[in-house]
Amino acid sequence: QKAEWAKLVNEQTTTKDGMHVELAANIGTPKDLEGVINNGAEGIGLYRTEFLYMGRTELPSEEEQFEAYKEVVERMEGKPVVIRTLDIGGDKELPYLDLPKEMNPFLGFRAIRLCLEEKDIFRTQLRALLRASAFGNLKIMFPMIATLDEFRQAKAMLLEEKDKLVADGVTVSEAIEIGMMVEIPSTAVAADLFAKEVDFFSIGTNDLIQYTMAADRMNERVSYLYQPYHPAILRLVKMVVDAAHAEGKWAGMCGEMAGDEVAIPLLLGLGLDEFSMSATSILPARNQLLALSKEELASFSAEMLNLDTADEVEKQVRETFMK
Ligand code: PEP
Ligand code: MG
């Protein structure tokens, strides 16, 4: 099976009915690039930049960040690279920031909420990203957006930093797409409002499922509620994809669900444009997608939204596609 998959390294991901979807990889550091390239990713769908900030005693400098972002876009040779701005807090702590302990860190001061307040930290990262954009196909995405106002503030700060750099004679790409993670239910439910202002969505199911089901993603006792195939989750995915397409934008997914063999037929049927996953999942996912028809799956997925439980959805997918 491994040998079969290896033949697909340089192939495009085209479904049985001739539709192209993008299979991208999630990375945490430039060191992950080798696996990404060896496994034939068509891009990077999520670069989790928080690892640049973790395991050390002070913030990374603009220069250090610039070097890391530049290395990633250069080595991807023009393929799309979605870089997520700092997503700290919740399960990811930064001891040197000395943030007060919170009762509910997953519902607290984290990610974009922190960046909009700690403006120096955020602007330093934005400048590093803008400078790196000149070296490849870099896209920027903001994590944990809950309201349109947050997206607008983050985007405004990005554009301000861009204008300053350009005024100083620094080369910045004119083609940077600016998108957001959909991982808070408010943004999925109101995706039509966000779709008018973003360039793309990337659905973060790890958090979206946790927040939709009100079940801590780290807590074993409630892990039975962590149900990617629940019709509630599938309906949210549909809302996001439909809202994006209505505005001519694209919608991807960078949560674990995107690389899951049961979820893949459902997501293809719902019209997802980009699937971003760990590098080792790419070739099996490509192999699976080559044999699926997007058009046939559209009606199948629509039916799945009306089943009663996640178990029923899973059973249907397995019986229909995995025998
Ligand atoms: C997600 O929430 O699905 C996601 C991709 O981000 P992280 O796992 O880093 O929270
Ligand atoms: Mg997340």
TrEMBL record:
Its EC number is 2.7.3.9. The keyword Ribosomal protein does not apply. Keywords: Cytoplasm, Kinase, Magnesium, Metal-binding, Phosphotransferase system, Sugar transport, Transferase, Transport. GO terms for molecular function: phosphoenolpyruvate-protein phosphotransferase activity. It catalyses: L-histidyl-[protein] + phosphoenolpyruvate = N(pros)-phospho-L-histidyl-[protein] + pyruvate. Its cofactor is Mg(2+). Its main location: cytoplasm. It is found in: Cytoplasm. Residues 2-290 form the PEP-utilising enzyme C-terminal domain. General (non sugar-specific) component of the phosphoenolpyruvate-dependent sugar phosphotransferase system (sugar PTS). This major carbohydrate active-transport system catalyzes the phosphorylation of incoming sugar substrates concomitantly with their translocation across the cell membrane. Enzyme I transfers the phosphoryl group from phosphoenolpyruvate (PEP) to the phosphoryl carrier protein (HPr). Belongs to the PEP-utilizing enzyme family. This is Phosphoenolpyruvate-protein phosphotransferase. It comes from Halalkalibacter kiskunsagensis. The lineage of its organism: Bacteria, Bacillati, Bacillota, Bacilli, Bacillales. The chain holds residues 249 to 571 of 571 of the full protein.
